[in-house]
Design brief:
This protein is 77% helix and 0% strand. It is mainly α.
């Protein structure tokens, strides 16, 4: 299916979205640190993300900001999950 937007527009929107998520992730990392994140269980990540989704559902005019926060939280969860798998602590952070 052909892209109806001018060449480069889609890529720049995509890049802006990704940059926003990465900036938010950097701010979260500065505030909480990876060591804090590495002790969270999958269920705890789920609660954090669900809480942000609930705020999004209330539609307070900050939808983009909420999506960015949710994206950054998901990225943090994936990073912690991957670090646990690489270090052999995988079972410690899962709900299994």
């Amino acid at each position: 299916m052909p892209n109806p937007t001018p060449s480069g527009v889609s890529e720049s929107v995509e890049s802006a979205a990704l940059i926003s998520v990465l900036v938010e992730r950097h701010e979260q990392r500065s505030q909480w640190g990876d060591a804090h994140n590495d002790h969270l269980l999958v269920a705890e990540w789920r609660v954090f993300i669900e809480e942000r989704c609930e705020k999004l559902r209330r539609d307070d005019g900050n939808a983009r900001d909420r999506f960015v926060t949710i994206g950054a939280l998901a990225l943090a969860a994936i990073e912690a999950y991957d670090r646990a798998a690489l270090s052999g602590r995988f079972k410690e952070v899962t709900d299994d």
